[in-house]
């Protein structure tokens, strides 16, 4: 879900876009905690600006939610002898879909809320 924000500068929109894209890129070849760290660092750098604070907080909450969901899948996969690991596929799809939608909204200068995101921070 996205909704319009007051007109934002191109620099703010670009940084907000990267707040959603960098954690997605961090998933490639790194442990699942790296995207969360990337989201937190990018959020903390510019959190004094309301538009960037909102996007950074949302990206951080989303990556934290994905990490928690992944932690729930691991024991389920062990209990079911690997069958439960198939739940990782929707998690990957959710990550890709949500990150792209968040980046698109940020690039348009809109606020965005991820689906299935726990608001923890």
Layout of SSEs?
Blueprint: E1 2-4, H1 10-26, H2 33-45, H3 50-79, H4 88-107, E2 110-112
Antiparallel strand pairs: 1-2
Descriptive account of the structure:
With 121 residues, the chain is mainly alpha-helical. 66% of the residues lie in helices and 5% in strands. It has four helices and two strands. Strands 1-2 form a two-stranded antiparallel ribbon. Helix 1 packs antiparallel against helix 2 and helix 1 packs parallel to helix 3. The longest helix has 30 residues. The mean pLDDT is 91.
Question: What's the gist of this structure?
Answer:
With 121 residues, the chain is mainly alpha-helical. The protein has helices at residues 10-26, 33-45, 50-79, 88-107, and strands at 2-4, 110-112. It is 66% helix and 5% strand.
List key phrases describing it.
5% strand; mainly alpha; two-stranded antiparallel sheet; elongated; 4 helices; 121 residues; 2 strands
């Amino acid at each position: 879900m996205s909704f319009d924000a007051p007109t934002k500068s191109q620099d703010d929109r670009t940084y907000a876009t990267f707040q959603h894209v960098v954690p997605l890129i961090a998933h490639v070849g790194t442990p699942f905690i790296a995207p969360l760290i990337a989201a937190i660092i990018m959020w903390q750098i510019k959190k004094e600006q309301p538009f960037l604070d909102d996007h950074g907080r949302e990206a951080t909450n989303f990556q934290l939610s994905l990490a928690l969901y992944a932690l729930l899948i691991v024991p389920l996969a062990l209990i079911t002898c690997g069958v439960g690991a198939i739940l990782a596929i929707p998690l990957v799809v959710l990550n890709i879909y949500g990150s792209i939608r968040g980046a698109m909204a940020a690039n348009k200068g809109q606020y965005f809320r991820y689906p299935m995101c726990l608001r923890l921070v």
